[in-house]
Amino acid sequence: MLQGKKIILGVCGSIASYKTANLIRLFVKAGAEVQVLMTKDATEFITPLTLATLSKRPVLVDYFKADTGEWNNHVDLGLWADLFLIAPASANTLAKMATGVCDNLLLATYLSAKCPVYFAPAMDLDMWKHPATQQNIEKLQQFGNQLIKPAFGELASGLVGEGRMAEPEEIVAFLDGELKKKLPLNGKKALVTAGPTFEAIDPVRFIGNHSSGKMGFAIAEKLNQLGAEVTLISGPSAMQLNSKQISRIDVVSADQMLEEVNRHFPKADITVMSAAVADYKPASAASEKIKKKEAEFSIQLIKTTDILSGLGAQKKSGQVLIGFALETENEQEHAIQKLKNKNLDFIVLNSLKDEGAGFKGDQNKITIIDKNLTTETFDLKPKTEVAADICQKIINLVS
Ligand code: CTP
Question: What is the pTM of this model?
Answer without folding.
Answer: 0.84
